[in-house]
Specification:
This protein starts with a helix and ends in a 5-residue tail after the last helix. A 6-stranded mixed sheet has the order 5-4-3-6-7-8, with helices on both faces. A two-stranded antiparallel ribbon has the order 1-2. The protein has helices at 2-11, 41-56, 70-81, 122-133, 151-157, 168-177, 183-192; strands spanning 15-21, 27-32, 62-65, 85-88, 101-102, 110-118, 137-146, 161-167. The chain has a single domain (2-192), classed as Rossmann fold, CATH 3.40.50. It is of the alpha/beta class.
C-alpha cells in the first residue's frame, strides 16, 4: 500500500527532483510538495489511510494538525478515524473569540500532532507551544514523510516521539526500483542525506 502511495505522490508531482531551496535555506535535490494533495482526493484519502494505523497505535484525545499543509491531511485523517480535530493558529485571532487554537478541547487532554513532512523540529515546536500553553498534553508527532534530516532526533531530545509513515530513503528506493528516477537523482538524494544506504 505504501509503495503505491509513493508512486502516486510522484505521479502527481508531490515528489520532485532538481535543486530546491528549503525553508531552512539548504538546497535539496528533492522537494516534497504535499500541499497539492487537496487537488487529488483519492491520493489524499490514501495518505489518510496510511496515517490511520500509525495514529491508531497511539493514545490521544484530539488530532492537532499543523497549519497550513497538514490541515487537509488532518481533516482527512479525522474523517477516516472519526476522531476530533483541532489546530493551532499561526497567529492568534485579534477579533471574535481571540483563540489561539481552533476546535473544541479541554485542558488535560492529549493531542497528537500531525504534519505532512518533518525536516527539522523547528516548525513542530512552534505548533506545540500554544497547545501546551492551553493545557494540552503532547507526546507524539505523526508525519507522512520524514526527510531524515535529524528532525525526529531534535524532537526526541525535547521529549517528543516522531512517527513517520514514509522515510525519504524509502521513497527514493521505491522510485528507483520502479524506474521513475535516474541513478543520478537517486545518488544525489543519498549524498544529500549523508550517503548511508
Amino acid at each position: 500500500m505504501n509503495n503505491e502511495l509513493i508512486l502516486n505522490l510522484h505521479r502527481i508531482g508531490a515528489v520532485k527532483f532538481g535543486a530546491f531551496k528549503l525553508k531552512s535555506g539548504m538546497v535539496s535535490p528533492i522537494y516534497l510538495d504535499l500541499r497539492i494533495l487537496i487537488s487529488h482526493p483519492p491520493i489524499l484519502r490514501a495518505a489518510a489511510q496510511a496515517l490511520a494505523p500509525v495514529l491508531g497505535a497511539l493514545r490521544f484525545d484530539r488530532i492537532a494538525a499543523i497549519p497550513y499543509a497538514a490541515l487537509p491531511i488532518g481533516t482527512a485523517v479525522a474523517l477516516e478515524m472519526n476522531r476530533p480535530l483541532i489546530y493551532p493558529r499561526r497567529e492568534k485571532k485579534e477579533y471574535g473569540t481571540g483563540r489561539a487554537i481552533e476546535g473544541e478541547f479541554r485542558a488535560g487532554e492529549t493531542a497528537v500532532v500531525i504534519d505532512d513532512v518533518i525536516t527539522t523540529g523547528a516548525s513542530k515546536i512552534e505548533a506545540i507551544e500554544p497547545l501546551v500553553a492551553a493545557g494540552l498534553v503532547v507526546r507524539d508527532i505523526v508525519v507522512l514523510i520524514d526527510r531524515e534530516q535529524r528532525g525526529a532526533a531534535e524532537l526526541a531530545e525535547r521529549g517528543y516521539t516522531v512517527h513517520a509513515v514514509l522515510k525519504l530513503r524509502q521513497i527514493v528506493q521505491v522510485l528507483k526500483d520502479a524506474a521513475m528516477v535516474s541513478s543520478d537523482e537517486y545518488d544525489a538524494v543519498y549524498a544529500f542525506l549523508g550517503g548511508a544506504r
